[in-house]
What does this fold into?
Amino acid sequence: MQSKPFHLTRWRLAGYYTGVMALILSLCGYTVYRLIVHVQWVNMEREMESVTTSLQETVEPALKQPGHLEPAISQLLPGVCLTSASCPAHSPRSENKQIRVEQKILSQIYEGNYCMRLLDQTNRPLALSQFFAKEQPPCTQEQFWQSLKDSGGDHYYKVSRILYTPERLPWGTMQVARSLDDIDLYLFSVQWILLAMVLLALVLTSIASWWLAGLAMQPVRESYQQMQQFTADAAHELRTPLASLRAIVQAALKAGELSQRETQETLQAVDRQSYRLSQLVQSLLFLCQLDQKVLPTQERPCQMNALISEIVEDFQALALAAEVKLTADLRVNDTLYVMGNEEQLYRLLSNLVINAIQYTPHNGQVTLILERTQRHALIQVRDAGIGIAPQDQAQIFKRFYRVDRERSRHKGGTGLGLAIAAAIAQSHQGRLQVQSELNRGSIFILKLPLKSVLG
Ligand code: ADP
It folds into this structure.
């Protein structure tokens, strides 16, 4: 069942996961984009450098006098026009058959859409060379050379080089502009691809987050349900003695005057119910403290041989009253020590022994056996009682679980004895198990690590 707070928390968790992933993915996407931009830019700069150098090496030998342009220049550069005449809007490739610029550079400059001009030392344009494969930028206009964008908003990369005559006299300047159109277009598509990938990854992440949040909340939901169940069971168990108490008191009030014997009986009944109530509250408190691990540890070596003998001695009277034979069988040659809280271990074993006595018919036998393995002390509480059905064996360690509720209550049981025993065993790094056969008897086996093992 999905309760509202859990549903809300699941949404929140999934939202947080997705938010964090969105941030990480965006950062990654942005970094990848910046890397691609950087690589493109470096490549473009390299290309620009080689094109400019090649153009410079082509032009410079033909520059005899500073500021004076030889007519031979038109044989050297593709699409060159002298600005003394008005330059055509476009210089097609076919016109540039005789140019001497390296073929490789030439293909680069046609690919990259270049524009070049030569200026004398007073910055007066003398020649213009355009190599545009596609569109024609306004590179005949002075304004074009003054900014990094043309009037249409397209970007250009521009470099200037000082040119020298063969005698190493400064001739003037060469300006080269390259359209960044192709790079802008490429980066634009990279942007869209990255955005689509990030969005797709986000959708997948949000689905995975929802599923993971559900998985992560499963144990919380289970323990919440257990807590709710525990509270409901505890309330139910408390209600019974409280209702009995109330009924006893109301009956006494109704009866008016009570004889001494009736008063005595009423008080005894009240005492019984309040004892039962206090037992229940104490057990609940003890379990909660075990759960929260707030009990003082007071761990010290506990001698198991002595503890078992003590329990057998202490419960002889109860066994006698139930007409059950209670014995100890210490199958060890040495004394076994377990690190722990002796009071709690006593409580654990006494819960098992009380149950064994209670669920064993007259003339039955209950035996406490102490054995050891290499690392553990093994304590068995064996009885020849009513036994426990296989389907109940896994349940009896649960809080308030009773095979026969009425019978247990009648015997004063709270349904918490085995839950407490198992919790104590667990807090001592031990384990409590049961083997049982209906109408043949039960064996509760407690396995505790020996002191030498724990150090
Ligand atoms: P209770 O207070 O009812 O004894 P426990 O937690 O001690 O509660 O035991 C849970 C249930 O396990 C009991 O109600 C009983 O049905 C079953 N049980 C425990 N010990 C034995 C045993 N030695 N023989 C048969 N049934 C047992």
